[in-house]
């Protein structure tokens, strides 16, 4: 469900890039592609790995009359995006948003690890949540870098140019980066972690200290991060062909009851869980898909 992979079409070495579709990109739903579209991820070089989770390239060619609409539920990450005449740094987007692609285009982004953008920014990352700023506000020579990255021939050359640009501004190591990254990693890897208090105990931090760490380094509150990743888990399980009972799912995700889970899920995704999965409430996904002849 996270995505599908295929080999890129240019000169990439095997295994260097992966074509991703689905919740791995924070995509909830998207209309059928009206033309060629690709989203590729590239691992960073080792010297940038402490800061950058991956580089990504998005390329499409649609007619203006037939755009593609995508509903997104973003991950808690800061992205540096090179786009023609509009390169920007995007803070953590706390809400679901709808994105429309039309015409033709190619953009490159760098997704920072949770916590890893703060040493570049030297300000609380929460200050740019739900917003964006020009790249030039953080990095020198941003316009030259935009021209070099987007003017490069081939994906590997674009990634190489973006990596060189970041190397020129690599900050000193910050111990709190690894602390913030580890905190988010624990939320991601442990579905049983559903309470802020659980995270406080694991990190041996007070609630105030944890809140300050997350606002400065992650850009969202601990509670928000936990709810976001538990929502991703709900999306995965709702799409599982083996089926899931909504009451069981709500309990597993730490909700008091199914109603609270349904309200949260609707607020975050725009759809109640039963409708998102294409089911009726109270039956398993697989049972109703077989009855209705549908699949998600």
Overall description:
This protein has 296 residues and is an alpha+beta fold. It contains 11 helices and 10 strands. It has helices spanning 118-121, 142-151, 155-167, 175-189, 196-203, 207-218, 222-238, 246-252, 258-269, 273-276, 285-292, and strands at 17-19, 27-30, 37-42, 52-61, 68-72, 79-82, 88-90, 97-101, 104-112, 132-134. Strand 6 (79-82) and strand 7 (88-90) form a beta hairpin. Helix 2 runs antiparallel to helix 3, helix 4 (175-189) packs across helix 6 (207-218) and helix 8 crosses helix 9. The protein starts with 16 loop residues before the first strand and ends with a helix.
Structure characteristics:
Arc Repressor Mutant, subunit A; disordered C terminus; single chain; seven-stranded antiparallel beta sheet; 37% helix; globular; disordered N terminus; alpha+beta; 2 domains; 18% strand; 296 residues
Main beta sheet: strand number and arrangement? 7 strands, antiparallel
- What form results from the Cα inertia axes? globular
- Domains, number: 2
**How do the strands of the widest beta sheet line up side by side?**
1-3-4-9-6-7-10
Write the H/E string, N to C.
Answer: EEEEEEEEEHEHHHHHHHHHH
Task: Explain the layout of strands and helices.
Elements lengths: L16 E3 L7 E4 L6 E6 L9 E10 L6 E5 L6 E4 L5 E3 L6 E5 L2 E9 L5 H4 L10 E3 L7 H10 L3 H13 L7 H15 L6 H8 L3 H12 L3 H17 L7 H7 L5 H12 L3 H4 L8 H8 L4
In short:
By secondary structure, this protein is α+β, with helices and mostly antiparallel strands. It contains eleven helices and ten strands.
